[in-house]
Structure formats: C-alpha cells, structure tokens
Amino acid sequence: MTPLDLAKAPPRSPQAELRGLCMLPRMIDIARAKLPGGNVGDYQIGRDKTLSAAVLDAFGISAGQFVNIVRDARTDSAPTSSDCMVRIIRQISSFLMF
Question: 92: left (phi > 0), else alpha (psi -120 to 50), else beta?
Fold first, then answer.
C-alpha cells in the first residue's frame, strides 16, 4: 500500500462512507500515512473517546492491527480506488472471523 502525506492533503471526510461505514475511508487514509514514508501530521486513529476508537472497538481490533491490515492490502490499481477499499474490508472481515 502506498503511504500518504497528510501534510500535503487531508484525509477524507469523517462523513465519507465505504460499504455504509462512515469514518472507514478516513481511517484508511490515516493508516496509510502511518506507513514508512508517510506523514501522519496531527491526525490519529483509535484515540480514546473518538469515532475511530468506536469503529475499531466494533471491529474488535487495535489501531496497530488496523494499520497492519491496511499495510498488507495489495492493489494493482490506484491505492484510493474503491476496489482497494473493498479488499481492505475483506481483509478486516477475514481477520475478525478468526
């Protein structure tokens, strides 16, 4: 997965949805910024009493696990494509099944 520089462009809006889940596209952008070569700036995911923490809690995973899932997502097209996002959701779903 290609890292992002959130100092150059902000993550997607908290209202952005992926498969009916708000915050997920934004969280993916922030996770990509946490990858080597990325720049997360002042953004965080999983901080106490935030919407991203509630999403992670619903998934039953930590912020670190989420970043690893995003890191391991592979795409042969643009990293922001909806196909890429669907693959990330599938990886999260398969993680949750075990």
Answer: alpha
Cα end-to-end distance, the chain, whole Å: 23
For residue 37, the enclosing domain spans 17-96
Q: How far apart are CA 68 and CA 50, in angstroms?
A: 20
Q: pLDDT tens, 1-41?
A: 789 999 999 999 999 887 777 888 899 999 999 999 999 99
Tell me the pLDDT tens digit for each residue of 32-61: 999 999 999 999 999 998 889 988 888 888
Domain total of the chain: 1
In a domain, 78, yes or no: yes
Is 7 within a domain? no
- Kindly state whether residue 3 falls inside one of the protein's structural domains: no
